[in-house]
Please model this.
Amino acid sequence: MPNTIETLPPNAISEPAFASNRHSFQTDDARLKPIADKVLGGERLSFDEGVTLYRSGDILAIGWLANHVRERMHGNVAYFNVNRHINPTNVCVAACRLCAFGRKKDTAGAYTMALEEAWQTAASGYTEAVTEFHIVGGLHPDLPFQYFLDLIRGLKERFPQVHLKAFTMVEVAFLAKRAKLSIEDTLIKMKEAGVDSLPGGGAEIFADRVRHIICDHKIDGDQWLDTARLAHKVGLRSNATMLYGHVENEEDRVDHLIRLRAVQDDTGGFQTYIPLAFHPDNTALEHLPRTTGLLDIKQIAIGRLMLDNFSHVKAYWQMMSPKIAQIALRFGADDIDGTVIEEKIYHDAGATTPQGMRREELIRLIREAGREPVERDTMYRPVTRTENSFTVAV
Ligand code: V47
Model:
């Protein structure tokens, strides 16, 4: 499979040559006017202004502002990629109330892939020449760190041109403890084995009050952020997520965004922000209602406005549905994730979206939103394709 991947300056973004926001900002909500002045002047928004945005009902005004920022950064381009998820195990000691994916060892539905099986899973559905494997799993009580290093090494040997986006901060911290290594050394060993970057999962909501309810046994918010700092320090970029639509309030969300922004000021290592809607089915929080389309759109727009130092905001179509993700492309998002292939975490929690989408369908969604689709690799370098191979532009 002929591929060329050369190094570009990381996090390169497209030329901002496009502006469809021809009309001027309008709102009936007087509280939004000073915020609009700051956004249009390129000034940073405060905690209180973030809360004001969440409390405002003027979604069109908020969306107009977010779209303005999005077009200032990315013009008319909307990114997608061709990726595959691999979840080597769902066995997990954490038992988070938010999660429908994890299982206790030796209980019904628990699985752990042998290495050969994980490599075979990676190869299946490979016909579209994926550029990224997204690899996350449960916190397994017995699997040694070596299993994960071998998994990554084996994938790199078999698929040298595929970017390996593997292990959340939560998994990194857990594996470090199991291997009796520092977090930094754990990350260095992962990088040496072939990990290219880290996904954004496990961040949930940083506020302790919320974390105690939804994911009591996970690392706390500061530990998640410190692990991200260390990943960036050893040269691994990462994404950042926020799980919303459960027991958090508006202040918790803004606190989460501002803590991400502070780390990004220091490291510049976050690539993309991805708000994730909570899916309650089959979780211990099943009594909670699902998020609404309006709330989903608001997370995208407010994320874009608050995270002035993040290059990308992703509307993950698996989580917010293709329909809402498409609209989000005009409310601050510049990315809709990828073909995914075999999503498990959301589907165990009742997601009704397909478990994958073909490249052509993603392109259609983006074009219909009036955006110009650009296939990217994980580092946002444009990908050019012939039938079953790809070339990354440099
Ligand atoms: O960390 C778990 C969330 C995350 C549920 O980095 C749930 O490109 C909703 O992080 N309802 C995993 N959410 C997914 C994730 C991700 C997805 C797409 C792209 C990227 C990226 C990262 O899913 C978990 C947790 O926050 N999650 N259970 C649930 N019931």
